[in-house]
Amino acid sequence: MQQPNLSYIKELAGDDKVFEQKFITILKEEFPQEVDIYKNHIAKEEPRSAAEIVHKLKHKFNILSMEDAYRFAVEFEDELRVGESKLHADFMDILNFTHTYLKTI
Amino acid sequence: MNCIIIDDEATARAIVAHHCSKIADLDVIEEFDNAIDGLKFLNQQNIDVVFLDIHMPGFSGVDFVQTLKNPPKIVLTTSDTEFAIEAYEYEAIVDYLVKPITDERFLKSIQKIKNSVLKASASTSSENSSATLGEELYINIDRRLIKLNFNEILVIEAKGDYIDIKTETKEYHVHTTLKKIKDKLPEKLFLQIHRSFIINFSKIIDIEDNSVLIEKKVIPVSRSSRPELMRRLNLV
Asked: Of B178, B176, B221, which is closest to residue B201 (Cα–Cα)?
């Protein structure tokens, strides 16, 4: 799986280390919240609502330079919007992998 | 200029706010995580620019734009490039930014906002002066003389023995040449940028590579006309 990195965040922050840290804190807070909401919608078999959260999560993949995960999320979002969730297990692998990475930064 | 940021993602708001902090004359007045609160705020405050996420559950960015009666300049932010196609359907929307937003792209957007504000102000001033100075021409269509104010003309295009005059509301097909009408137009307002096109300089929305955008029409700029076009731009 494609390794996440902080290149976009560092480029955005420039020399502003305070912003960089603040932004990482926001990301570390928001990501697991969205994952929980996503899992909740899947558990309740609400694929279209889950699609809304996948839409937000894919932005996080872009922030972390995870282009492959982003493309996968685009495909999965489309699938959810038509009421399917076959890619759920693979998507969970990406979420868990990303969450593990976020705990290290 | 002042602005507000509307996005249901905290990370997205933080990114836009940080970009804004790098612009000397742009202040972020408030941030909202939903469009309804942003709308209420806009009804109470005079805001120049809204950075608006187009994809929000419940009340989307498009709903938001449609609801506003006198909208400020709006820059859409989106994770989906396909939404960009819709972006220019609304006059208030001056640009769209695909997430994650880079410094370079954000700066370009700020320039578009400033150009848009300048054009709106120039257009108002032009309309006022035209009304008092009678700056107009008459075109002959089916033996009717139709008056056109210079400031309502967008583009004039040569079509064989005819020209098409596109205004903000209509298009006129007139039997004359581009050369003849060019002589009737004020040089300060009009510029021939191609052998087939004369444009109203104040109506330019955007210039990119070898074309200009006026309203929704992309007009080619010939190589020989480009230096004069660049000379007349108020480039920063």
From this structure: B221
